[in-house]
Specification:
Blueprint: E1 22-26, E2 32-37, E3 45-46, E4 49-50, H1 52-73, E5 80-91, E6 100-111, E7 114-123, E8 126-138
Length: 142
C-alpha cells in the first residue's frame, strides 16, 4: 500500500514543521496510514522525546495527508486545515529519537468541511498515543 507521492505534495506544512515522512495510502476499510521517524531537530522536541503537542501535530498532519491525497485524486488543490478540538487524547509513551511512528486515521464523521477523526499512533506495534481530532478544512482556495 505505497503511494509513491512526495509528502509535501499532500500537506500544506513546510519544514521545519513537517511531522509526516510518508503517506502509505488508504486501505479497503477507508483507514489511512502514515509514517514519521522522530528526529532531535524536530520543533516539538523536549528532554530527548517528542512532546504531547508534537504527537497531536503529527496526528493532525496525518489527517491532512489523507485529505490531501483525496483532493489530489479528485483533481483539487490541497486545502489548509485547522485543529478545531482534541478529545479523548491519551499518551502511553513519548517517542525518543529514531522511533518510527506509524499512524492510522479513521474518519468517524464528516459534515461539509469538518471531519472528526480517530487517530492512533504506534511505535514498534505498541500504541504510543491515540485520540480524536476535529479538523476544519479551508476550502476557500478552491
Amino acid at each position: 500500500m505505497q503511494t509513491g507521492v512526495e509528502i509535501l505534495e499532500l500537506i500544506p506544512q513546510r519544514p521545519p514543521v513537517v511531522l509526516v515522512d510518508r503517506f502509505r495510502g488508504i486501505d479497503g476499510e477507508g483507514v489511512s496510514h502514515t509514517e514519521f521517524v522522530v528526529a532531535p531537530a524536530c520543533l516539538f522536541w523536549e528532554e530527548g522525546r517528542l512532546t504531547e503537542c508534537g504527537l497531536i501535530e503529527h496526528m493532525a498532519q496525518s489527517a491532512a495527508a489523507r485529505a490531501g491525497w483525496l483532493a489530489r485524486q479528485q483533481g483539487r488543490d490541497v486545502a489548509l486545515g485547522y485543529i478545531g478540538s482534541v478529545g479523548r487524547f491519551r499518551v502511553a509513551a513519548f517517542p525518543p529519537a529514531g522511533s518510527r511512528l506509524e499512524t492510522t486515521i479513521r474518519v468517524v464523521q464528516e459534515v461539509f468541511n469538518v471531519s472528526l477523526v480517530k487517530a492512533t499512533t504506534c511505535v514498534d506495534g505498541e500504541v504510543a498515543a491515540e485520540g480524536e481530532l476535529k479538523i476544519f478544512l479551508d476550502d476557500a482556495a478552491e
